[in-house]
Amino acid sequence: MILDKQEFTFTIYTENQVGLLSRIAIIFSRRKINVESLNTSPSEVEGIHRFTIVIQESEDVVRKLARQLEKQIEVLKVYFNKNEELIWQELALFKVPTDIIAEKAKVERLLREHGANAVVIRSDYTVFESVGHREDIDALMEKLAQYGLIEFVRSGRVAIIKASEGFHKKLTEFEERQPSEETEENQVLDQKGGIFSM
Amino acid sequence: MSTLEATSKEATAKDNTKSLTGAEVVLECLIAEGANTIFGYPGGAIMPIYDALYSYQDKLNHILVRHEQGGIHAAQGFARVTGKPGVVFATSGPGATNLVTGLADAQIDSTPLVCITGQVFAQFLGTDAFQETDVVNITTPITKWNYQVTDAKEIPEVLAKAFYIAQTGRPGPVLVDITKNAQFQKVDFEPYEHCKHIRSYRPKPIIRNEYIQAAAELINAAKKPFVVFGQGVILGNAEKEFLAFLDKTGIPAAATALGLGAIPTDHPLYVGMLGMHGNYAPNVMTNECDLLIAVGMRFDDRVTGRLDKYAKQAKVIHLDIDPAEIDKNVTATVPVWGDCKESLPLLTKAVEKNSFPEWLEEFRKLEKEEVKEVIEPELNPTTDEMTMGEVVKYLNELTNGDAIIVTDVGQHQMVACRYAKFNNSKSNVTSGGLGTMGFGLPAAMGAKVGQPDKTVVSISGDGGFQMTLQELGTIMQNNIGVKILILNNHFLGMVRQWQELFMDKRYSFTNIDSPDFVALANAYKIPSKKIEQRADLKAGLKEMIDHDGAYLLEIIVGKENNVFPMVPQGSSVSEIRLK
Q1: What is the CA radius of gyration of chain B?
Q2: Which residue in A19, A188, A189 is closest to B334 by CB distance?
């Protein structure tokens, strides 16, 4: 069963409500599912927040989790996607000694190859930023470790769904309708994965 | 609208605005929601609400319980027999944490509750102030919704939401935690507006015709269809619609423990209770049917036994209002997502009239086997020891299936569910999903308050009764006419049964001594009697039922009697044991 597990990214649209993070986190933790990455931010719709959560799980478990998440009162919509269905990025910051950067041309070249930009330059250290997939960032970190990497931090994943028309349109349609009206996703019997979303 | 009209409307609204404290606003909201009964216990952090309540006693009936757990179980009993949300007050800290068991119980059994807890002043939040606990985070996994109010202006909207959420869709418990400053704060209270819509919350969908047609096709083609129904029928007030469906399709139907009472026990198509201690026939036939129609039930593991061996031969139609329940445990061939009050009539219309006499006869054959092996010895024992089953049999004779039966948890619970007669919906109140010992007495108390004209019988074991027996004080003070039946086998019977069957009779800490229950009842001024001989049983039960007011009857039953049939844990439902 472990073999069935793969990386899934949840995109959860919620009301901006105190305590909701805890309510969402509990849905994962009570099933002993480790959250690999979590990012929360406002969405393009005012007052609506967007969670991006990455986990390793089987599709069956992920589908059930999505329904439990969507069942929460303040959750508007839950999507779950495989990596190939997403455009996603992570941001990393690297703190390296400035003297090494200045002296060793190889490091400068390395940073250029990885598209890293300087954010802060001080006499004692320089901070670079890099944006990309986890493997790209990991590769850069491994190399910088050889040159006295002082500190490293990486953000949670942010992701955009390739196929989605965007939630804004869906929300607008939803708000135009009266409560309890039927939904588009609820129509097709042979697409069970999508049936129960809002 | 003209400017004049608008100004006049504004003026009228202003005339209707009252300046009230947050505490008074809470009570006004409860009245506006039609909640006239509150179970609660005062304390420092909820004192402003209790102070306000002093002036509202003519409009709100507050019942002072002896422990917050008793209060919430009473509210559960009230909700289960009335269909209205039960309301509970508790103070902060220990008061609020004492609600936890009841909240978890209500969450898993889909019971609508609105719990209001006091909280320390907002400026003390997070400082470990006296009696401060983070009740919102503690109760998050066991509430349908919860919220902390720190500003009295929020109270009307939050309480309106709370009532709406508690009783719509799949019902459940909600908790509103109100800081003390918000209870004191003066605000303008405008005419109350009920909540009818929350943007992010969709209580139920409109039923899609595709579901109905696909389900009807399966039903029309089935040779051995079987209906399993749960509390969803009762919560959806869909009893009539369900009966109409059964009467047209002629399909045999079995209940989960919480589904009992949705149709009368003596309905010709009713074939018994499902599950671990359910009836023989419905358990065995689950693995024989070609179509399983699940109505408002959630395939609990106590019902399914081993999932990998559960109804594998059958196609499955699952009617449920909660989309998270569909495909959770058993994969549905056709999911009918919706309120069964709406989906059942559509389905009834779409199916052909039918009957399955030969298929039904297969259930009846197995039933005869169960009667011979289990039911007859249980109801008409030949030994001197009284059995729990024969007590329930005589209770049926006296109440004719019209009583509300509230049970605690254990052997007596299963015996009551198996043998009690239910003519009416909302007459079986038991802790199903959580299996909460101590639930019975306070829940019965709440049920009697909710249905004062009904005979309410609380059936407990000697173990569970001792968990919440302090509520005898509430019964005494409020003159609640609940009939209290204690089936005393001097054991924690269900655990002992498992120890006997699966742990070589190593009765580890399951023998329990009890106080003199009769003396205890007398201390609470509740008439009582102890029955030790079969010869006194009928008369004792009759005296209890006929008595005007609360009455406690202790009956000594066989020490090591077991509840059979039984599906041992980890077995398939068709491996059910008759002995």
Answers
A1: 25
A2: A189
Q: Which fold has domain A89-154?
A: Alpha-Beta Plaits (3.30.70)
The CATH number given to B209-362 is: 3.40.50.1220
Residue A42: CB atoms within 10 Å: 11
pLDDT bracket for residue A198 (50, 70, 90): very low
Question: Is the pLDDT assigned to residue B1 strictly greater than 80?
Answer: no
| B183 is an active site residue | no
Q: Tell me the β-bridge partners of B5.
A: none
- What fold, for B17-189? Rossmann fold (3.40.50)
Whether the CA torsion B76, B440, B444, B339 is positive or negative: it is positive
Mean per-residue pLDDT, A168-186: 56
Is the CB of residue B361 less than 8 Å from the CB of residue B342?
A: no
Of A67, A174, A175, the CB nearest to B323: A67
Nearest to B570 by CA among B327, B328, B307: B307
How many Cβ atoms are within 10 Å of B133's Cβ, its own excluded? 20
- Of the candidates B139, B80, B321, B352, the residue with the CA atom closest to the CA atom of residue A26: B139
Backbone Cα Rg of chain A: 21
At residue A190 the predicted structure's pLDDT band, cuts being 50, 70 and 90, is: very low
Q: How confident is the model at residue A187 (pLDDT cuts 50, 70, 90)?
A: very low
- Answer whether 0.80 is exceeded by the pTM: yes
- Complex prediction ipTM: 0.91
Q: What are phi and psi of B125, to 5 degrees?
A: -55, 130
Calculated CA dihedral for residues B274, B280, B284, B285, nearest 10 degrees: -70
Identify the CATH class of A6-86: alpha beta
Examine the residue annotation and report whether B131 is marked as an active-site residue of this protein: yes
Whose tokens are 């005869």? That residue is B368
The Cα B178–Cα B152 span in angstroms is: 8
Percent of chain B at pLDDT > 90 equals 95
Taking CB atoms and an 8 Å limit, are A71 and B202 in contact across chains?
no
